[in-house]
Every structure is written in C-alpha cells, then in structure tokens.
Fold:
Amino acid sequence: MRLRDLTFQRAFSKLFVYNILYEDAEVDERFLGLDEDSRVLSISGAGCGVAGMVSKRPRSLDVVDINGHHLALSALKITAAQRLGSYDTFYQLLGHGHVAQPWKVIKPLARDMPGWAASYWRKHHDRFKKNFYEKGLTAASIKMIRKMVGSDVHLMHMLMGQDEESRVRTIDAIIAPVFDRPYVKAFVSSPIQLVSLGVNYSQRDRMLEAEEQNTMVGFILHHMRRLADTDLNTNWFAWMGIVGHFNHGHPEAVPPYLRPDRHATSFGAPTRVSYHRRNIFNLLDNAGPNTWSHYTLCDMPDWLPEPTQRHLLDRILHTSTDGAIMLYRTVEDDCLADRHGLTSHFQRLDVSDIASEQDRSRQYRHVHFYRVCH
Ligand SMILES: C[S@@+](CC[C@H](N)C(=O)[O-])C[C@H]1O[C@@H](n2cnc3c(N)ncnc32)[C@H](O)[C@@H]1O
Structure:
C-alpha cells in the first residue's frame, strides 16, 4: 500500500465516520442467497448490512472492521436485532435515532456484546439522546453542505414530484452554485473530506478516471445527478443527504434490518456472531480451508494496490467452501478476477448487472457477485 493510503487507513480506523452503511443492503439481501447453513465473513462498515443478514439466521457471522467505532455500531445494530423484543423501541432507537433514556435501552443489549463494545456504548450511549443520524464525520460534513444549500424536506418533496430531467435541472440550479464557492471547493477536495466519504487516494484516482471527472467537486455533483434517476421515495441515502433522517412515512425507505418483518425473524436468531476489530487479512491469513461460504467486502478491494488484491483472492480461494459467494463494490469497470487471471476460480454471476442497476446509493459503478469454484 502507498504511504499516503497507509496514513489514510490509520486515520480512518480511529474516527467515527459513518452512521449508516452507504451501500444498498436490500440489493445484497436479494442476491446473496444466505440460509441457515451459511458461514459469513463480512466487513461491517456501519453495520446496516450485517444486521440485516441476521434475519436469514446464518450459522455464523464473522464481522470484521479496522474501525472500532463502526464495529461497535454494528454490534449495537446486530444485538438490537437479535435481542430487542419491542419493535417500537427498536425502531425508535435505530430508525429515529433517539430515545428518552438511551442507557436504559442499550444497557441490557450491552450485556450480550463483547466487553470492549459494551464499554464503548457505556461511554457513548448519549449519542442517541438526539438524532444519532446527525453524528459522525460524514453526517457532520453533509449537514454543513445541507445548511449552505438550504436543503430540507421541502426540497426533497419538490424533487420527488419531478421527472429525472427536471431533478437534474434543480440540482444544477440550487446545489451546484454552492459547490462553486472557493471555500466549498477547497473543503470538498481536502483529505478530511476523503475520509468522510471513505475514499482513499487510490480509490479516488480510480474513481475520477472511470467517471471522467477532474475534481472531487465534479465527482460529487455527478453523483447527485446519478441519484436523480432512483426512486427517491425509498432512497434512504438521498433522504439522509437532503433531509438528514429516514423517510419514516414509507415502510421500504429504511435499510431492511429496520423493517418489521426482518425484525420478527431476527429476534432470537441463533446465529453465532463474532466481532473482529482488525484487518480482514489477519483473519484470512489465519483461517483454513472450508471456513466461509459468503464473503462481503464492501468496496475495500478498491483501497488496495494490485498485488494485495491478488493476495485477497488467493486467500478467499483457500478459505472458502466450493461454490462460496463473494460480493464487493467497485468504482472501476474491470473485474478483479479478470485483472488477476483467475476467471476459472471466480465466476462473475449475471445478477451482478441487475444489482449494479438497482443499488440506490449510486456510489459505485458495479456491484459484483462471484461464485468461487475450486
Ligand atoms: C471500505 S469502507 C467504504 C465505504 C462503504 N461503502 C461504507 O458505506 O461503509 C467500508 C469499511 O471498510 C473498513 N475497512 C477498510 N479496509 C479494511 C480492511 N483491510 N480490513 C477490515 N476493514 C476494512 C473501513 O474501516 C470501513 O468501515
């Protein structure tokens, strides 16, 4: 890894960056094919995806992240899904992001978490006193931009009433001029903004090249225009960006783990969950054959130099069951398996095209599902 990406990784791992997973977990759920025999290794990010997996009651879930804040948040979301019997309290905590007495709700859950995660929430439970979804680096940076734009629920309703072309015109008229201000340009191009987007230097370079953009400002506006062709009614990423909370009026406008039917099947799920606050390579390098049937990697391969990507594929081949599924997202057009001459072992599934089309986060060019063949 290049020095500036190593520095990025070190800084990123220490900061509370995300409060939601910026990937469409509903798409993953549709195509991953988890069942009660599945043994999953998953990078957690902010945990919305792994919390949703519990509703499929897989045999085991190894949740890994180098970022302790994200892993603790994932532990809270997963434990609440498995152990919080009242759906109303569950939704109030993690849907609305605030409850009157956070520790009273979180304390019984903390007993079922690893000691370090329980200590984390003993210290930070008051984040749920007021809108949790305004906390963390990404939310703070989005809130600042929202204030400058004057963006709120009225703008969202206006966009929802428009067709795609009119939405793009609205974005160009109302949002683009704010990004043209010199201090906003400087902020958006700064290293802290890369951290808040979760985009390291290697990924930034790959992303700008693939989208034919010269600057991060150009990329962010391009991304907003891409959001314009999604169903804004259910697009919780757009709601978080434009309004600052979920669209509580629509039952499908939240990550699946927050929906009543998933809560009903997650509650009491016997899945064995292990949390690993470390680099995923640490787990992969120390595991034997036939350990996992599913790998979900977020967009982490984009953070890696090519030799390390190759090492990742080799270790997945070594540790997987025959026929295992690997899922990752990327800002690039070519596939990892092609690039490393491993297409006979990693077969890209056709559902990848549908998944890429359906992912409402619109952050990635591709959502790739592979079948691992020994
Ligand atoms: C790659 S980031 C990118 C953003 C992603 N779309 C999201 O919403 O979380 C996702 C997560 O991967 C974690 N991560 C990155 N590299 C990792 C590694 N080598 N091992 C474990 N976790 C890693 C980060 O800490 C972060 O929480």
